[in-house]
Amino acid sequence: MAPPPFWKGYLKLSLVTCPVAMMPATSQNKKVRFHTLNRKTAARVVTRYVDAVSGAPVEEADEVMGYERGEGDYVLLENEELEAVGLETTHTIDIDRFVPADSIAWLWYDKPHYLIPDGRLGEEAFSVIRDAMAATETVGISRLVLYRRERAVLLKPQGNGIVLWTLRYGDEVRDERAYFAAIAEAKPDAKLMNLVLRLIDQRTKPWSASMVSDPVQARLLEIVAEKKKGKKRRLPAAKSEPPADNVIDIMEALRKSLSSKGARRR
User: Fold this and answer.
1) Claim: this prediction has a pTM higher than 0.70
2) What one-character-per-residue DSSP string does 208-264 give?
3) How far is residue 165 from each of residues 52, 153, 209, 239, measured CA to CA in Å?
4) DSSP letter at 206?
5) All structural domains of the chain
6) What is the pLDDT of residues 173-228, one digit of tens each?
């Protein structure tokens, strides 16, 4: 059963408007979660803000946001002042531009959300915007207030719906040239390339969600289940890390990889 939408508003393109609903495309509900407890009493530990100087607890009414302009020197900002700078983009996704779908690198993508028409009346307008983006291989760019901050968002057609991605802010994505510029541009040996291409071919499979399963979470659930039964689990010995400075013959390593893969297939 699909979860209820957490946001409702309007999708707008020029004079075309339709009511839409949105819900997160990902979920943390299946994640194993733990509480911090007092070992002696088994009661939950409660976190509180305390004054860094006096150590005394700070009441919620006395908490205020501060911008540090110097060491230990802050400019205080009230909630009303912070809310006043927000733009009126809380209820309308107004698409003001389109860009080629393949022109935005994946590292700009932040959080995905499913966008659907809210009721039958808006389906025709929603569908024509979605199909027009698909036909032109473009994505829409807009702005929207989500999670208490105004964000740039990207709208991408997918199936019968639209996936709305929040985009990272410009100062959050570091310039790749600062990291990649020092890597040598020399082309690898043709024989090595051929061996790697063969290895990739052998290991290429259709995408499956099982490829991103969480084995650590599965083992945690096993431990919890055994603890419920009163069993004491023997912890595995720590694995030793291989030397980081091993010098290997790449050609020989690739040949062994291919031969071992072939042997397993036979």
Assistant:
1) no
2) -GGGG--HHHHHHHHHHHHHHTTPPPPPPPPPPPPPTT----HHHHHHHHHHHHHHH
3) 38, 6, 20, 39
4) -
5) 8-24+89-172 (2.40.290.10)
6) 888 888 888 888 878 888 888 888 888 888 888 988 777 776 777 777 777 777 77
